[in-house]
C-alpha cells in the first residue's frame, strides 16, 4: 500500500472508523501519512472548537431533506449522518483537506522535477577523448557520485566526482583526481585509492567549462548538463537500445546455470566498443573464469544470442546470461570455462574472493597477464 491509497483510511480514522490491517500498518510506519493524520485531527478539532462558540440554530428538518434530495450524493449523506458540527464547517473541512493534499502533491512534484541528474563530460587536455558519468543532485550517497577510470600507454587516471550542493542552475562538486604512470589493478567503482587525496570543489553551470589541474598529468576539462531522468548507463547516457557495430555491451548481467543463479551484478555494466573480437570475461570465486566471445577461438563451444539473452551449454549444463540491454549485434557467441582460473595470478592486486566481469578484446583477455584493463 502506498501513501495515496492510505489517504482515505487516514480520514476514516479521524471519523472514528476501523480500517484494514494493511492500511493501519502503513500509516503507523509512514512519517508522511502520520503527518497527514495529525493534520486531519488538528483541523477537525479546530473546526469543532469554532462550531462550539457559534449560537445553536434550530434546523428545519424539511429544509435539510430538500437540500439533501437536491444534492443527491451518497458521500454527502454519509457525512451528514456522522456530523456533530454545522454543515458549513464540514464543507470547510473538506476544502482544507483537499488543499492540504494538493499542496503536498505540488511540493513533491516540484522536488522531483528540481533534483534530476547531472551529466558530467570530462577529457584530458589537449587531445583526450570525452568521457561521461552521471550523478544525482540529491543526498543519495549511492548515486550522487561517480568514479572515472581512464588508462592508456600514458598511464592511468582515476577521477571521483561528488555532488555537494546546488544554487539556482549551478551545482557544486567535490572532485578528487589521481594520476599514475602505470596501470596497477582492474577497473572498479571503488574510491579506496583516492581516500588520501585532498578534495577540491568547483561550481558547474550548463554551457560552461571548467579546467582542473591533475598533478603529474596536466589538466582535465569538465562540463555538465542536466537531464530529467537517470539513464540506463551512467557512463554512457546517450547509449541507444540497439548495440553498435563491434560493440559488446554487458549491463546488469545475471548468469544462470540450470535453476541456480551463479552471478548477479545488477547496476553494473562494461562495454567494449571498436574491437572486432570483443569478449566478456566473468570471474566467479571457486568456479573460475568464463569467456564469452563474439568470434570463434580454440576450445570454445557455440552459443546463441536473442535480445537480452545469451544461451549456451557447457559440461552438459545449460546456461543463460541475462542482460538488461541487448549485448551484441551478433547472433552467436563462443564460450569456454576454466574452473582452475584464479584472478590474482593474472591481474596485479586483484582478489580471488570477489566476483568480477569485464569486456575487452579477446586477444587481450587471452594473454597470460592481462594489461590495460582500467
Overview of the molecule:
By secondary structure, the protein is α+β, with helices and mostly antiparallel strands. Helices cover 26% and strands 35% of the residues. Helix 2 packs across helix 3. About 13% of the residues have low confidence. It is globular and about 90 Å long. It has three domains: 113 residues, no CATH class; 111 residues, no CATH class; 119 residues, no CATH class.
Give the tags.
alpha+beta, 374 residues
Question: Which residue ranges are poorly predicted, with pLDDT under 50 across at least 5 consecutive positions?
Answer: 63-88, 98-114, 185-189
What Rg is obtained from the alpha carbons, in whole angstroms?
A: 30 Å
Overall form: globular
How many extended strands? 19
What percentage of residues falls in helices of 4 or more residues?
A: 25-40%
Portion in strands: 25-35%
Domains, number:
3
How many DSSP H or I helices?
7
The strand order across the widest sheet is 11-10-17-16-15-18-14-13-19
Based on secondary structure, the structural category is: alpha+beta
Largest sheet: 9 strands, antiparallel
Q: Could you tell me the mean pLDDT?
A: 78
The N- to C-terminal Cα distance equals 44 Å
User: What order do the SSEs take from the amino end to the carboxyl end, as H and E?
Assistant: HHHHHHEEEEEEEEEEEEEEEEEEEH
Amino acid at each position: 500500500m502506498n501513501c495515496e491509497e492510505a489517504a482515505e483510511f487516514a480520514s476514516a480514522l479521524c471519523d472514528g472508523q476501523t480500517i484494514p490491517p494493511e492500511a493501519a500498518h502503513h500509516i503507523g510506519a509512514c512519517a508522511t501519512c502520520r503527518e497527514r493524520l495529525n493534520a486531519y485531527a488538528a483541523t477537525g478539532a479546530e473546526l469543532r472548537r469554532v462550531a462550539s462558540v457559534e449560537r445553536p440554530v434550530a434546523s428545519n428538518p424539511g429544509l435539510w431533506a430538500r437540500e439533501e434530495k437536491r444534492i443527491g450524493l451518497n458521500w454527502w449523506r454519509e457525512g451528514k449522518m456522522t456530523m456533530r458540527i454545522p454543515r458549513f464547517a464540514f464543507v470547510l473541512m473538506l476544502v482544507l483537506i483537499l488543499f492540504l493534499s494538493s499542496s503536498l502533491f505540488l511540493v513533491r512534484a516540484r522536488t522531483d522535477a528540481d533534483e534530476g541528474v547531472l551529466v558530467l563530460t570530462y577529457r584530458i587536455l589537449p587531445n583526450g577523448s570525452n568521457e561521461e558519468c552521471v550523478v544525482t543532485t540529491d543526498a543519495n550517497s549511492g548515486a550522487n557520485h561517480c568514479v572515472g577510470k581512464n588508462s592508456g600507454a600514458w598511464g592511468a587516471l582515476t577521477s571521483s566526482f561528488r555532488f555537494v550542493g546546488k544554487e539556482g542552475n549551478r551545482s557544486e562538486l567535490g572532485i578528487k583526481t589521481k594520476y599514475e604512470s602505470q596501470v596497477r589493478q582492474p577497473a572498479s567503482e571503488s574510491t579506496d585509492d583516492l581516500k588520501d587525496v585532498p578534495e577540491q570543489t568547483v561550481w558547474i553551470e550548463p554551457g560552461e567549462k571548467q579546467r582542473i589541474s591533475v598533478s603529474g598529468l596536466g589538466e582535465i576539462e569538465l562540463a555538465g548538463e542536466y537531464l530529467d531522468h537517470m539513464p540506463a548507463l551512467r557512463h554512457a547516457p546517450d547509449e541507444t537500445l540497439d548495440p553498435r557495430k563491434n560493440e559488446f555491451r554487458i549491463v546488469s548481467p545475471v548468469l544462470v546455470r540450470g535453476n541456480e543463479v551463479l552471478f548477479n551484478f545488477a547496476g553494473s555494466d562494461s562495454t567494449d566498443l571498436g574491437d572486432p573480437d570483443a569478449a566478456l570475461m566473468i570471474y566467479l570465486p571457486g568456479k573460475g573464469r568464463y569467456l564469452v566471445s563474439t568470434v570463434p577461438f580454440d576450445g570454445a563451444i557455440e552459443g546463441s544470442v536473442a535480445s537480452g539473452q545469451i544461451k549456451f551449454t557447457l559440461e552438459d549444463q545449460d546456461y543463460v546470461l541475462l542482460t538488461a540491454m541487448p549485448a551484441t549485434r551478433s547472433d552467436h557467441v563462443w564460450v569456454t570455462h576454466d574452473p582452475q582460473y584464479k584472478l590474482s595470478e593474472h591481474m596485479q592486486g586483484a582478489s580471488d574472493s570477489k566476483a568480477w566481469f569485464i569486456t575487452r578484446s579477446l586477444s587481450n583477455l587471452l594473454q597470460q597477464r592481462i594489461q590495460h584493463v582500467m
